[in-house]
Design goal:
Layout (H helix, E strand, L loop, with lengths): L1 E6 L3 H12 L4 E7 L2 H9 L6 E4 L8 H9 L6 E6 L4 H10 L3 E4 L4 H12 L4 E2 L4 H10 L5 H5 L5 H11 L4 H8 L3 H15 L4 H10 L4
Parallel strand pairs: 1-2, 1-3, 3-4, 4-5, 5-6
Helix pairs in contact: 2-3, 4-6, 8-10, 8-11, 9-10
Length: about 210
């Protein structure tokens, strides 16, 4: 069972997210609150939280500050930012502060549930709508070239998967695009993480952009 915290200052949004999450057999909402301080207080009380859904703009303690506080803890939940804001600086600030995923509230229910399960399993998720923000920032500061990628010994299929990950596609979307099983794609992504020494899927996507694959 995945224990989820829902942190958003809009009560209607919290209620909607809780209804969606609690309807799933493998997900339960253990805490909800209107600012990041509520999440920190719950963790201090020992409330179980595997994944925290976190808005960015909130009173008292906003999302970026909450991420900063969580980063100082030895044990912290995975954090999935769910917000209306897709401005470049907010996306990059959230990722730099330690967010494991970034979704927009206008996204689909199925994508939210998939993202919760992905970050709970140690993965990372970027909504396709925010990938351009990452691309713009990385292209202003390139540090990896196509020649660097060629030295990694990637197979042609791994190269294809890396390119599609850089475009923001999920494993299922990559599988559909390449006519592979999701399990096979997951294996390729695992191999890519090892070969590129990337921490997570977000770093893989950044690598693809820096190398000019996207």
């Amino acid at each position: 069972m995945i224990a989820v915290a829902v942190i958003d200052d809009q009560s209607l949004v919290r209620d909607g997210l809780c209804l969606i999450l609690d309807a799933e057999p493998d997900i339960t909402v253990t805490i909800e609150g209107e600012h990041g301080g509520k999440l920190l207080d719950a963790l201090d009380r020992g409330v179980e939280v595997d994944v925290a859904l976190l808005d960015l703009r909130m009173p008292v303690m906003d999302g970026i500050r909450t991420l900063g506080e969580l980063s100082r803890r030895a044990m912290r939940p995975a954090v999935l930012v769910v917000t209306t804001f897709d401005r470049d600086e907010l996306v990059l600030d959230a990722i730099a502060a330690g967010a494991d995923g970034y979704l927009l509230k206008r996204g689909r229910r199925v994508d939210l549930l998939s993202a919760v399960r992905t970050v709970a399993a140690g993965g990372s998720v970027l909504a396709p709508d925010v990938v351009p923000a990452v691309v713009r920032r990385v292209r202003r500061d390139p540090s990896t070239t196509a020649e660097d990628i060629s030295r990694l010994g990637l197979t042609p299929r791994e190269h294809e998967v890396l390119t599609l990950v850089g475009r923001g596609l999920s494993n299922h979307e990559v599988a559909d695009h390449l006519i592979l099983s999701p399990h096979t794609v997951k294996t390729h992504v695992t191999n890519l993480l090892a070969k590129t020494q990337s921490r997570d899927r977000v770093q893989l996507a950044l690598l693809a952009v820096r190398a000019g694959l996207v």
